Amino acid sequence: MISGEFYYAFDEELVRDRIRVRRLLQEYNSTKADETEKRLELLGKILKSEGEIIIEPPFYCDYGYNIRAGKNFYANFSCTILDVNPVIIGDNVMFGPNVQIYTATHPLDPEERMKGLEHARGIVIGDNVWLAGGVILCPGVKIGDNTTIGAGSVVTRDIPARVLAAGNPCRVIRSL
Question: Which residue ranges form the domains of the chain, and what is each CATH number?
Answer without folding.
Answer: 7-175 (2.160.10.10)
